[in-house]
Description:
Chain A has strands spanning about 5, 10-15, 20-25, 30-35, 45-50, 55, 65-70, 75-80, 90-100, 100-105, 110-115. Chain A is mainly beta and about 120 residues long. In chain B, about 35% of the residues are buried.
Amino acid sequence: EAEVAQSPRYKITEKSQAVAFWCDPISGHATLYWYRQILGQGPELLVQFQDESVVDDSQLPKDRFSAERLKGVDSTLKIQPAELGDSAMYLCASKGREGIQETQYFGPGTRLLVL
Amino acid sequence: GQQLNQSPQSMFIQEGEDVSMNCTSSSIFNTWLWYKQDPGEGPVLLIALYKAGELTSNGRLTAQFGITRKDSFLNISASIPSDVGIYFCAVNRDDKIIFGKGTRLHILP
């Protein structure tokens, strides 16, 4: 069964350092999402891509966060510089059709700890 | 911010018991979703509801889309240890998923 792949699974960094997360969506899925999930909360959308284009990045803190999907396949989310409050799970999802409806499928996430 | 009110926040039950959790919103939505998240993993879709009043089952799970389109509930019958995890209600708005804060299910031996 096809899955969304993410790496690394865990990342520990010091504040002010740069970190990057990678996501490979399910093959053929044109829409890709990055979510942030703070402990004890539900995931919240950071950015949405349609192919290589950003559809919605209104919730992305653009002073330190950037996301790209240059070839419309895999995607990278970067934080520079990382702050203590960035500690969270970063989830990637891609959207595809299951039956007659479209569904978002989530990857396993990257758990970030900023010290 | 979050627009969904999910309750209870956590539940402690005995194995074999039935479970019920619900989600409400002040806004109308046309799609209600229920996800489960295991520790260290991403959410997995359990049930999707697309029509007001719809009652859908997936094994021991049953979910309903409220008639007002402002609420949904999820029931789990005859709970087993692997049901442990966090259950999220969610809605689809403008091709984006909005999640509730989750219900953490604990099963006592």
